Each structure stands twice: as C-alpha cells, then as structure tokens.
Amino acid sequence: MTMMRAIEYQGAGGPEVLAEVARLKPVPGPGEVLIKVEAFGLNRADVQQRKGVYPPPPGASDIPGLEVSGTIESVGQGVAGISEGQRVCALLSGGGYAQYVAVPVGLVLQVPENVDLVDAAGFMEVASTVVSNLFLEAGLEQGDTVLLHGGAGGIGSMAIQLAVAAGAKVLVTASNEEKIAYCLALGAHGGINYREEDFAERTMVLTDGAGVDVILDVVGAKYLAQNVRVLANNGTLVVIGLQGGAKAELNIGALMAKRARVMGTTLRARPLAQKEEIVAAVRERALPLLAEGSLKLSVDRRFPFPEVAAAHEYFDSGRHTGKIIVTP
Ligand SMILES: NC(=O)c1ccc[n+]([C@@H]2O[C@H](COP(=O)([O-])OP(=O)(O)OC[C@H]3O[C@@H](n4cnc5c(N)ncnc54)[C@H](OP(=O)(O)O)[C@@H]3O)[C@@H](O)[C@H]2O)c1
Q: Would I find NADP among this entry's keywords (predicted)?
C-alpha cells in the first residue's frame, strides 16, 4: 500500500485543528485521473468546513481542498485524450490538501504552456463559480453593468476580469482604498469603499440612476434590501456567500415592479454532470484568455505545505487580495 501526506481537520475550530497525516494514495476509478498535486488553492469553503459549519457533501473526501494543479500520474479505465505527465488543474468536491487526488476527467483542464503550474492551483474553483453564476445563471452580456461585492477577493478578482472581457461595465465594493485600487488595476470601472459610503447610493450615482443588470453577492442577508434597490429592470441578483447572514426580509413588490430575479447557488453540491458542463464552459470562456495572457491569476501569497495553518490564519485575517496557494 502506498501512502501520501495529507491535511485533515482534527475537530472544528481555528487553524490549530489542521494536522498533517499519512493517508492511502488514491487509485483512479473508471473515468477518473490521478493527479500528483503541485499546489492547491484556499477557499472560504475550506475555512467554513474547518469551523464545522460546512460539512463535505455525501461521497466527498473528508480531506479539505476544492481545487488543485499538478500533473497526471495515471488514468483510470475508459479515460482517453489525456495522458501521464500532462499539466492540469482540477475542480474537486474535496481532497485537494494532499499529495495526490483522484478526480473525474470531466473536471480537469489542461494548463496552458505559458501559465505557472503553481498559480494555476487557484484557477478552477473561482473560474467555475464566476462563469456559472455570471454567465450561465445570470446571463451577463456585453453592455450590461455588473456589481461585484468583495471585488478584491479570490472570486472578485476573477469576476472583474471575465466580466470586463465580456464587455460589461464593472462596479465593485471593497473595505479600503488599497483594495479598490487593486480592483481598478484589474479593469473594474468603478469602486465603492463600503465602509465610507452607502454602496447602494453610490451605485445609483455611478449608473445615472439606472441600477445594475447583475449583482454577484457574497454578503447575503445584510445586503438583500439594498441589492434589490440597485437592481435594474430585468436584473438578476445571485447570492453565492453569506458573510452577512442568511435570513432577511425581501420586498417582493420591489422585485415584481422591476421584473427582477433573486437566486442563490452553491458549486460544490451540484451533481457531477452540472459541474462537467460548468468546467466545459470555463474551458470555452476563460481558458483561451488565460492562454493568451489577458486573464491574470491573482495570487497574493504562496505557503509551503508545513505552513498550511499559517495560510489559514492569513486567509482568516482578510488582508489578502486574490488567491492564497499552498504547495505540498
Ligand atoms: N456559492 C458558491 O458556489 C461559492 C463558491 C466559491 C466561493 N463562494 C463564496 O464567495 C465568497 C468569496 O470567496 P473568496 O474565495 O473570494 O473569498 P475571499 O478571497 O476571502 O474574498 C471574500 C471577500 O469578501 C469581502 N467582503 C466581506 N464582507 C464584505 C462586505 N460586507 N461587503 C463587501 N465585501 C465584503 C472581502 O473583502 P473586504 O475586505 O473588502 O470586505 C473579501 O475580499 C465567500 O463568501 C465564499 O463562501 C461561494
């Protein structure tokens, strides 16, 4: 039996619950590939799982980690078109904090030549979240205006670039001027410091009173009323995070008057077929931009495997812009 190093959560709590353990090296099943992990990306879901409030979905590994990059170590039965040694990145429902991970081949993309393989670890979860919500769900189009809350985060950094590339006007919120400057440098057209000004008031000014066609929201309850207020006619609010709570009152009348929609999604719990569709859309929409260099992977900091708890501490501090990456 071959073993590998992995990280598990020993109980629920702060970064101190992370522990390095020896686990069995996975064997790829039919339709799967085994990836030798070069690096994994941190996501807020990892932190929520660490705190014990976001358990892995049924059937998923208890090892955390929703995205990796690496090289193909071996392929399972029935896998064609991908071979050992190829540089890849993958979307996972768990298991990324390890030296090896097995994943259905439909959730794997080849990393373009010009892209650093370690940086590519932070691509799949954010790209899949952004492409599925902005384009497949909310139908963002050229000429639309989109408001991105948390513009300087991992999701926000990718969303800014993909929305700009699609020809949308992009507004962001963030907690300080440094983060706003970072978003503007990524291509955002306007930034709102939500600690200094009311984001709804400012959004209406920046859109000449028209409001926005799409909102990608990571705050939830606390922003619901203001988000509905700034939606344009036929607009869509997609809630993907609950950093400001889950329960709020909704003025359905305001929604009806605008023929607007409010929806929520999670990526991790979607059935495999849906995830494969999303990854195919990422291949179409985001991978070419990555290959030509117009989409940048915004990596804030890399940590070595033994310092994964420090990486979680840094994530918890909220000081980061873009992604935090760990190399096993
Ligand atoms: N539903 C899904 O499928 C899915 C998938 C992936 C991620 N997510 C969610 O998306 C969110 C972002 O994930 P991430 O990986 O990008 O995390 P991240 O890098 O930590 O970014 C989170 C951002 O939220 C911002 N924020 C927090 N409170 C805010 C507020 N009141 N107003 C505006 N911005 C606020 C923070 O920026 P400031 O310092 O500027 O406040 C931070 O930049 C998380 O809530 C995560 O759970 C959902």
A: yes
Using a 6 Å cutoff on CB, does residue 241 contact ligand 1?
yes
Q: What is the pTM of this model?
A: 0.96
Residue nearest to atom 37 of ligand 1 (CA): 150
The amino acid occupying position 243 is: Q
Provide the pLDDT for residue 328: 78
Same topology for domains 3-123+297-327 and 127-264, yes or no?
Answer: no
Nearest CA to ligand 1 atom 35: 150
Q: Identify the pLDDT of residue 213.
A: 98
pLDDT in tens, 230-289: 999 999 999 999 999 999 999 999 999 999 999 999 999 899 999 999 999 999 999 999
> What's the length of the chain?
328
Which of 218, 219, 227, 319 for mutating ligand 1's site (highest number of atoms within 8 Å of CB)?
A: 218
Ligand 1 pocket, residue 160 CB under 6 Å: no
> For residue 56, what is the DSSP state?
P
Lookup: tokens for 255: 């929604």
Q: Which CATH architecture has domain 3-123+297-327?
A: Alpha-Beta Complex (3.90)
CA dist 203 and 200 (Å) reads: 5
Cα 85–chain centre separation: 26
Residue 210 identity (one-letter amino acid): A
Q: Which atom of ligand 1 is nearest to the CA of 264?
A: 1
What superfamily in CATH does domain 127-264 come from?
NAD(P)-binding Rossmann-like Domain (3.40.50.720)
274-316 pLDDT, tens digit per residue, is: 999 999 999 999 999 999 999 999 899 999 999 999 999 999 9
Q: How far is the CA of 264 from the centre of ligand 1 (A)?
A: 14
Backbone region of residue 263 per phi and psi (left: phi > 0; alpha: psi in -120 to 50; beta: other values): beta
Domain regions of the chain by residue span: 3-123+297-327, 127-264
Cα–Cα distances in angstroms (integers) from residue 321 to residues 7, 174, 300, in the given order = 24, 10, 6
CA of 299 to the centre of ligand 1 (A): 15
What is the distance in A from the centroid of ligand 1 to the CA of 85? 34
Q: For residue range 30-51, list pLDDT tens digits in order.
A: 999 999 999 999 999 999 999 9
CB of residue 243 inside a 6 A radius of ligand 1: yes
